[in-house]
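RECORD TYPE: inverse folding
INPUT: structure tokens
STRUCTURE:
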């Protein structure tokens, strides 16, 4: 099944990002870069605030060292494509979400090795050399994020009637594609181990706390710097949904430590649903009296 997942995952992500691109225009991205406060704070939230919260949880909870590093690994990863999907479904600032995902996916090439070296020095008995390929990561960003989004924008520009007709069904088609991929990954992980994920229920509390806490920190802290309500819940969703697939890959293929990927598997199994629910609540019930201000 792993071979099927390796083949389908980049194709599914590309299709999802193209569908998201159909709902965007170049002007959406111009706004992000003309007034970059939101994207800069979103990057700060993911790369600094979330990592600090991950370390705090690792210190507070009496977890095995491998699981402490596992929670930090999740916190160190960028937001995944699923965060763009949730923002698309909740009418967030999708161009902002895509921009944060793209920038952070590149920056983690440099930040993840540093963060994990610190984690190993604090919680492990030996140091580890962590090296991510700059060229490969850049290639994946361009192939699975940037090009599909640009194709989607082109479709909207040159075939506006077709784009309008697709807009409503895409809100159901894109999540369905994502759920199918999630299901395949979870089934593969369950089938590759001797124990069920339910046997690790005690790890759900710190994983869930990371997911929920970073969303509230992201939402309220972005408000302190003057970002409007729509931008705030967009950033909160970006922080709440990390790239679990990348964390699993690093754990299994680069670090090759037994049990290190477990926290990422658990996190990936529930975080889409919890992030969507909290994001929906933030959109509809937080600061409802706030007027939309362009930031």
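DESIGNED SEQUENCE:
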């Amino acid at each position: 099944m792993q071979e099927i997942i390796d083949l389908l995952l980049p194709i599914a992500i590309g299709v999802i990002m193209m569908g998201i691109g159909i709902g965007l225009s170049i002007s959406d991205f111009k706004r992000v870069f003309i007034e970059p406060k939101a994207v800069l704070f979103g990057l700060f939230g993911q790369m600094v605030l979330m990592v600090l919260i991950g370390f705090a949880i690792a210190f507070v909870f009496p977890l095995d060292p491998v699981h402490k590093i596992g929670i930090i690994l999740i916190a160190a990863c960028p937001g995944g494509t699923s965060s763009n999907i949730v923002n698309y479904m909740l009418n967030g600032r999708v161009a902002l979400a895509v921009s944060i995902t793209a920038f952070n996916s590149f920056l983690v090439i440099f930040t993840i090795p540093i963060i994990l070296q610190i984690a190993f020095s604090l919680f492990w008995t030996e140091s580890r050399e962590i090296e991510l390929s700059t060229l490969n990561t850049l290639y994946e960003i361009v192939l699975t994020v940037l090009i599909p989004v640009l194709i989607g924008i082109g479709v909207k520009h040159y075939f506006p009637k077709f784009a309008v007709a697709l807009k409503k069904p895409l809100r159901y088609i894109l999540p369905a594609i994502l759920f199918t991929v999630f299901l395949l990954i979870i089934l593969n992980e369950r089938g590759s181990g001797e124990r069920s994920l339910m046997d690790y229920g005690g790890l759900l509390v710190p994983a869930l706390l990371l997911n929920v806490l970073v969303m509230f920190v992201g939402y309220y802290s972005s408000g302190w710097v003057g970002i409007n309500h729509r931008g705030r819940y967009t950033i909160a969703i970006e922080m709440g949904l990390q790239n679990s697939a990348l964390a699993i890959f690093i754990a299994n293929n680069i670090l090759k430590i037994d049990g290190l990927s477990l926290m990422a598997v658990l996190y990936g199994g529930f975080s889409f649903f919890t992030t969507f629910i909290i994001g929906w609540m933030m959109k509809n019930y937080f600061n409802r009296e706030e007027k939309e201000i362009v930031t």
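NOTES: Confidence is low (pLDDT under 50) at residues 291-295.
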